[in-house]
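call fold(seq) -> tokens
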Amino acid sequence: MHALSPYPSNSSFNYLFHTRPSTNRFTPNRFLIKCAYGFESAGFASTRADWQTSCAILSSKVVSQDQPSSDNNGATADHVAAVNGHNAAVSDLNLVHIGNSGGTDNNKPLPPKPLTISDLSPAPMHGSQLRVAYQGVPGAYSEAAAGKAYPNCEAIPCDQFEVAFQAVQLWIADRAVLPVENSLGGSIHRNYDLLLRHQLHIVGEVQLPVHHCLLALPGVRKEFLSRVISHPQALAQCEHTLTKLGLNVAREAVDDTAGAAEFVAANNLRDTAAIASARAAELYGLQILADGIQDDPSNVTRFVMLAREPIIPRTDRPFKTSIVFAHDKGTSVLFKVLSAFAFRNISLTKIESRPHRSRPIRVVDDENVGTAKHFEYMFYVDFEASMAEVRAQNALAEVQEFTSFLRVGYGIMPNGGCWLD
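ret:
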């Protein structure tokens, strides 16, 4: 995880937020946004001063670069401009540059370039292109989900889920689209924990069918493969099909599916195949050895769309609301909470329990069984009702009587539609 060092002088902060002279926009190099901070608190950038400081830290590392020009000998000359009164060099940025994949056609157009940190700016006005963060590299299923949720958006790849949350909080991105549940693999618990830690709001959801392909370099045959790499869930979802194909190969897990395809292409691995999407094969110059290799054809992943501001609940259309709660007395309160919804005929669409990170163990003294230790849990619940409805307000008022912690409306989204903004 890379860190961006703040510029030592505080004068750059005043310069940034008092006057902002117009600058020319240069075509950015293709960078992958890396995690820049390690904050663990839920109140990340909770004040305007914190937000301005974070923006100034990022802006002090900005670099603008002209299109490179090459001479006849292949030498490349780069012109680096001064930004915010300071000279910067590409080597000063702690960003990972994604170059052309090895063995691919140099004349083949690159995937759409994501925004870089130098494009840090307020959210676009009405009609402008939305910037949507997702986890992975171009060709990932999350990129396809971002395009389905926000057509014609500019997708921003992030190397971690945490970075996608930070990108929205720091105004580098306007939205984030992240997976929370798969029909075969279950919940993505990491994102449930991050939803509680960060002050972002769910404003919609989208479901994406997962269609896995077996990819390899052009000319490679299946019988010459010695290993298959992909995301752990993708490997598990294709286990039986790989056996039916007669592939007696080692199976290795990597961070994401499209990253596996990129790794095979970049390192010219002729004994290795990747499980990824057909778009990843197109982007990285790979051939499809087998199409639709998932064991279950009804493999679907549910993604949530995150924003800095919540949407206003209404009563003129169905809504889904998300809450999270805990209680000091353990799981005995769960029945009372469920009764509060059942009594008012409010349907629950999701209930998920996660160990309480602050108090994972609860010690109970019982005269019959002695001292016992139990897990403490946080409960995530989605229910089909709008916070503008009286029945939902009364249900949550009753739930609050039973719980020691209740966060209401971290997700309020229209039900039955792809998204609402």
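The first strand starts at residue 31 and ends at 32.
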